[in-house]
Write a structure and sequence with these properties.
Layout (H helix, E strand, L loop, with lengths): L1 H15 L9 H8 L1 H9 L19 E4 L5 E4 L4 H11 L15 H12 L4 H8 L6 E4 L9 H6 L2 E4 L2 E4 L18 E2 L3 E2 L1
Antiparallel strand pairs: 1-2, 2-3, 4-5, 6-7
């Protein structure tokens, strides 16, 4: 929010010739980001109770599932066409095809999906679902993230001073950023 505020203030200054103070508290930004969820409450489309909140893991089509190898897959096919794509690729049982509109069915549907995801490894699920509209992603360990094909292709991580770290972001075509050194924390000395 501060970066956008600075840009907006610079843009406005070009028109008015006057500067201004930008007040960008974190609490303001968080509250603004919560507007979407707050707007869903009065309509009944979301519930703050975890066991009834579709975006907090209660809905079977918006949560993580453990695979045969103990790793996890995250799914989020909220729209019917994406849910159908996932179920078709999984060769899911008929009981899941009714959709996730009825919260009373969520526990049973979640149990079916738990059993289904436990039949294959994370890599097997990725091979089956990759390139589809099934709205899924492997849940990566931090150490595995630099090796993920999408992150490797984009160069999201780079090695510097023998350590992997996120590359500078955002990226600029004319003036690309460059990490200059690695920050290391020592319990005795603080940040280097």
């Amino acid at each position: 929010y501060l970066a956008v505020g600075i840009l907006a203030a610079l843009w406005e200054r070009e028109r008015s010739g006057q500067g201004q103070v930008i007040d960008a508290a974190i609490v303001d930004g968080v509250s603004s980001l919560m507007t979407f969820f707050a707007g869903l409450l009065p309509s009944g489309r979301i519930d703050l109770q975890r066991d009834r909140n579709p975006l907090a893991g209660a809905a079977p089509n918006y949560r993580c599932y453990r695979c045969a190898d103990g790793r996890e897959i995250a799914i989020g096919p909220l729209e019917p066409q994406f849910w159908g794509e996932l179920l078709e690729r999984m060769d899911a049982p008929e009981a899941l095809w009714a959709g996730c509109a009825d919260p009373a069915e969520w526990p049973a549907q979640g149990e079916l999906l738990e059993r289904l995801f436990a039949t294959r490894t994370q890599a097997e699920w990725c091979a089956l679902l990759e390139g589809s509209d099934a709205c899924f992603a492997p849940v990566l360990e931090l150490a595995d993230a630099p090796q993920h094909p999408h992150l490797r292709q984009r160069g999201v991580y780079q090695e510097l001073d023998g350590m992997m770290q996120a590359a500078p972001a955002p990226r600029f075509s004319r003036t690309p950023g460059k990490a200059r050194r690695t920050l290391r924390c020592s319990t005795n000395e603080g940040w280097d």
